[in-house]
Automatic annotation (TrEMBL):
GO terms for biological process: carbohydrate catabolic process. Belongs to the glycosyl hydrolase 1 family. GO terms for molecular function: beta-glucosidase activity. This is Glycoside hydrolase family 1 protein.
Length: 486
């Protein structure tokens, strides 16, 4: 007789850890032959509820390239993990990390993006990072493209708008897979690939002077090139390092209908489909019909090589990863918009918001996990989730961040419930285990970490690493495999 199984806890091999991005932590932007990136030409915003990451023009890039300082460009300095990585990894190990997600900066290996041979100093740096992780038995999870590419490719060929960028990227990925063979068990291709519909930060393409239609045309064309590059990278990895696995990465924005009115339910369904379209392509290997209809109705015509669709179908990803920070509300008519720098829908009256206008919805994480598992039946991995907050360092050098503990506890409880629902969940890498430069606003005041970094928005400070209360809490969570959440 069939006896259903309902796991009451996380699997024994569950991958607990944290996640960062090179352009937000490394610094050393002009050290050891590294080239300038798209992330390092975007100025710090003056309004924390406005994202300046796509407000770029050819002239603003030229101005940024000519500026040899990090004053206006905080991602150039990060939190100097380039020189502090040993200290940082030791702290991660003290918490008990099983995995650490980080990105390899394309421009450290290929400074302009189109060189034929890699920069050996860049490879040597990541050799040292991976060796240090292995020293503490922490598994590397490497993101291949996390919101940065060599600015040289923007200036030469307008980034991913050009099909030539596929070959440049896959030269980079082949180098990574070959050099680190047997040492990196997990890779992700493009971070939050769906945000390429927002523009420059993910496509490396300048499009601010285009009409709305032409922007969409360019962005979806750039995304098609990324889809092909991702499939080819999957092919490369499976050939070069068959034991390693590669996944897609989505910025998951679960959408609720504003009312039970069927037209609102349908509007929410359409928004969700547009969000999941990206994972449909990378995990199922094909463009879904609803998106083909959207392209046709909006006059978007994608240029494809004859074998592109066969390539996508033949090389889908091994697993699906995603970030989860918030949910949104959709109404067929215009709804009140959330005043947040990454909020894309209406306000939900049942949810609280962070200082940055992000609606906090732990239950939405379970809903998302259940829906993704039902749709794809591929292993899932929560690779970003966290609370950006203004932390206060006390006179005796402590940070009491009970609000962060409460946030993470509620989300982990919902992950545990999803596992009991039958979801195959690989792991959880909380976003920003150490304070870093904010992606959306390039400020330091928006802190996520278990580890406080003594640096302010102007880059002043000792860079001392200080354990917050949440450090010790997460240590207990990992040690108990998610059982001790008090």
């Amino acid at each position: 007789m069939y006896k259903p199984s309902f796991p009451k806890t996380f699997p024994k091999d569950f991958l607990w850890g944290g996640a960062t991005a090179a352009n937000q932590v490394e610094g050393a932007w002009n050290v050891d032959g590294k080239g300038l990136t798209t992330a390092e030409v975007v100025k710090k915003t003056t309004d924390r509820k406005h994202m300046s990451m796509d407000d770029v023009t050819t002239e603003s890039i030229k101005t940024a390239v000519a500026d040899k300082t990090d004053t206006l460009y905080p991602k150039r300095r990060g939190v100097d993990a380039y020189h502090h990585y040993q200290e940082d990894i030791k702290l991660f190990a003290e918490m008990g990390f099983k995995v650490y997600r980080f990105s390899i900066a394309w421009s450290r290996l290929f400074p302009q993006g189109d060189e034929t041979e890699p920069n050996q100093a860049g490879l040597a740096f990541y050799d040292r990072v991976i060796d240090e992780l292995h020293k503490y038995h922490i598994q590397p999870l490497v993101t291949l493209s996390h919101y940065e590419m060599p600015i040289g490719l923007t200036l030469k060929q307008n980034g991913w708008a050009s099909r030539d960028t596929i070959a440049d990227f896959n030269r980079f990925t082949r180098t990574v897979f070959t050099h680190f063979k047997g040492r990196v068990p997990y890779y992700l291709t493009f971070n939050e690939i769906n945000t390429g519909t927002w523009g420059f930060h993910a496509t490396g393409a300048i499009d601010t002077t285009l009409s709305k239609h032409d922007q969409l045309q360019l962005r979806y064309q750039a995304l098609h090139h990324q889809f092909v590059a991702s499939a080819l990278a999957t092919k490369q990895l499976h050939e070069i390092d068959p034991d390693a696995k590669i996944g897609s990465m989505l910025a998951r924005m679960q959408t609720y209908p504003a009312t039970p009115n069927p037209v609102d339910v349908r509007a929410a369904q359409l928004e969700d489909d547009k969000n999941l379209f990206f994972t449909d392509v990378q995990a199922r290997g094909e463009y879904p019909e609803f998106m083909n209809r959207y392209f046709a109705e909006n006059g978007i015509k994608l240029a494809m090589a004859p074998d592109d669709q066969a390539t996508l179908a033949k090389y889908p990803v091994d697993f699906i990863s995603f970030s989860y920070y918030m949910t949104t509300v959709t109404k067929a008519d215009a709804a009140e918009q959330v005043n947040g720098n990454m909020a894309t829908g209406g306000r939900n009256p049942y949810l609280k918001e962070s200082d940055w206008g992000w609606q906090i919805d732990p239950v939405g994480l379970r809903i998302t996990l259940d829906e993704l598992w039902d749709r794809y039946r591929k292993p899932l991995f929560v690779v970003e989730n966290g609370l950006g907050a203004v932390d206060q360092l006390t006179a005796d050098r402590h940070v009491h961040d009970s609000y962060r503990i409460d946030y993470l506890r509620q989300h982990i409880q919902q992950m545990k419930a999803a596992v009991a629902d039958g979801v195959q969940l690989m792991g959880y890498t909380m976003w920003g285990p150490i304070d870093l430069i904010s992606f959306s606003t390039s400020e330091m005041s928006k802190r996520y970490g278990f580890i406080y970094v003594d640096q302010d928005d102007a880059g002043k400070g000792s860079l001392e690493r200080i354990k917050k209360d949440s450090f010790y809490w997460y240590q207990k969570v990992i040690k108990s495999n998610g059982e001790d959440l008090d």
